[in-house]
Amino acid sequence: MNLLEAIYNALRLPELRNKLLFTAFLLIVFRFFANITIPNANQQALQQLFNSQALLGLLDLFSGGGLSTFSVVAMGVNPYINASIIMQLMTVVSERINDIYKNQGELGRRRFNRWVRYLTVALAAGQAYGLTVLFQNITPAILPADLDWFARLSIIVILTSGTVMLMWFGELITEFGIGNGISLVIFAGIIGRGPRTIISTIQSHGGGGLAGYLPFIVFGVIALVVTAFIIEVQQAVRKIPIQSAQRVVGGSRTIQARQSFLPLRVNTAGVIPIIFAISIMFFPTIIANYFAAAPTDTWYYKAAQWVRGNFQPDGPNLSMTIIYNSLYFLFVFGFTYFYTAITFDVNDVANSLRRYSSFIPGIRPGRPTAEYLGAVLNRVTFAGAIFLGLVTVVLPIATSRVTGISHQQMYLGGTAILIVVGVALDTMKQLETQLIMRQYRGFIR
Questions:
Q1: Could you give the CA distance from residue 118 to residue 111 in angstroms, rounded to a whole number?
Q2: Does residue 72 surpass a pLDDT of 80?
Q3: Which of 186, 304, 320, 355 is most buried per CB count within 10 Å?
């Protein structure tokens, strides 16, 4: 009853109700555009391609199923996510960009976000051109090989506009709705395409009484256990005690000493390392697909065919399957450390603590504090990196072996559950904050 009462209280508030309805409206519009396909696309050939390439399913996951139908939002928010990651990396490489992002306040943030949007358009146009050429040259062809320049340009403009529209939807939801807009767009895509995929998978494997549905029962139990595990890890933090000294502000106002803590999340990086790893692991397959229409007697055609047939998470070549999944795990593990180091600068945190007359009991301010935070963060990040690697690499393989459901049909894989759980928890917390501000009971006690 607490959950139902909280939802009822949220809907009773006009301001909060308008935010919820606005968010729902934009997500429904997004799902509408996800079902509008590009003209002249061969859907049968497209489905055959996705059934043979498990990695394309991961990219399709972030587009909400738009890529598997080659809709106007086929690229989803992938270019925006990549542009955001690139610009965050630039804050480490360029002192000028770092100064604009961190030291110029709201004006600097707006300038930084404007650069992200420009880079999103450039990346979206490049990716749209690559998809158009790829779908023309692949066998069987998805787009007609005799497209003129105007038809190709039209497809590129449509796909780029779809990404820009979703980026705009995400920013509108963040500003006027509830939750993080970009995350909710991905969340809506995963949830929206779920029922159709699950029903088709059950129909293709069902039959034979209870024994025919036993794999799906086992799969459901595994999904529930994994969801509970992900919730625990996503909520887990390492609390570092912080002691604030008594200080005088403004010559007359005295702030008393108090105790608090600095929370270090186990999974600070979220799903960003997975996106990094997917991009790198998919690169050889992208190159191989470009040579699909090459002469069959050339060495690069044979090499491309070998890559397409063997460089897979669960391919026919056992040794390559082991190598592939090992590389995937190592990339996820390494990028977790890399992205955590970028987003959580221990030197900045140590300087902020000293600036506000705060310290960690038993640790001297300044450099010793930064070294202590770095040591604790490394240990916490190790657990988070192992967690992401298990969820994205080991879990799908183990579930496929236990249930007999292939990677291509395993819709609710570890990455999807991780995204759904993370976005749902974040949205619930924001809604809880809105309710607490208005003195209503929230979702979490």
A1: 11
A2: yes
A3: 186
pTM of the model: 0.80
In whole angstroms, give the CA distance from residue 115 to residue 137.
Answer: 33
SS3 for 240?
A: strand
Contacts 24+ apart (CB under 8 A), 418-422: 418/230, 418/271, 418/274, 418/388, 418/391, 418/392, 419/61, 419/183, 419/186, 419/187, 419/190, 419/271, 420/187, 420/190, 420/191, 421/227, 421/230, 421/231, 421/234, 422/183, 422/230, 422/234, 422/270, 422/271
CA angle, 145 as apex, 139 and 150 as ends, to 5°? 145
Q: Indicate the residue type of 82.
A: N
CATH class of 1-192: mainly alpha
Say which DSSP state 172 is in.
H
Question: Which of 186-190, 350-354, 425-429, 439-443 shows the lowest mean pLDDT across its residues?
Answer: 439-443
428: Cβ–Cβ under 8 A, 6 or more apart, which residues?
443, 444
- Residue 273 near residue 339 (C-beta atoms within 8 A): yes
Question: Domain residues of the chain, as ranges?
Answer: 1-192, 208-412
Distance of CA 173 to the CA centre of its chain: 17
Name which of 111, 122, 197, 195 is nearest 163 in CA terms. Answer: 122
DSSP one-letter string for 338-350: HHHHHH--HHHHH
Is the CATH code 3.30.1490.20 the one for domain 208-412? no
Phi-psi map region of 84: left, alpha, beta (phi>0 left; psi -120 to 50 alpha): alpha
**Out of 19-28, 156-165, 364-373, 404-413, which region has the weakest mean confidence (pLDDT)?**
404-413
